[in-house]
């Protein structure tokens, strides 16, 4: 006798209600979403996305290492990529953050002008944060360059 041939309701002592509407609800009864699923999804996404990014970074690095070791085992010379100096990293971060912040502010500024929504300027003001960080990276780059020239 197969287990799957037995109807599911035989395992329960009570009878299943006859479905008259969606999900067995009566036509007079109305179900509303209370929004608790949004919090659950927010927590799962806020923890899952960074974990996925960290795993991806780890896996890509591991694959590069395995590829380099396999090439060395075969006798192929593998050129080592030069690592960027601290000044070059600061300059790159400064350029990216400053350009991204300016683009964010300009985009929200255009939206504020076109849609005539003054509240959008409040969102555009948030672009000042990465702009300030980018300017800080430019200052860091200048100081590192000046220290390197002085030595």
Task: Explain the overall architecture.
This protein is mainly alpha-helical and 151 residues long. It has four helices and no strands. It has two domains: 35-80; 82-146. 64% of the residues lie in helices and 0% in strands. The model has no long low-confidence stretch (mean pLDDT 80).
The first-to-last residue Cα distance is 87 Å
Q: Provide the succession of SSEs.
A: HHHH
Classification by helices and strands? mainly alpha
Beta-strand fraction estimate: under 5%
**Residue windows where pLDDT falls under 50 for at least 5 positions:** none
Our count of domains comes out at 2
Strand runs, count: 0
List its salient traits.
single chain; 151 residues; mainly alpha; 4 helices; flat
Architecture blueprint of SSEs:
Blueprint: H1 36-73, H2 86-115, H3 120-125, H4 128-150
Quick summary:
The protein is mainly α and 151 residues long. It has helices at residues 36-73, 86-115, 120-125, 128-150. The chain folds into two domains: 35-80; 82-146.
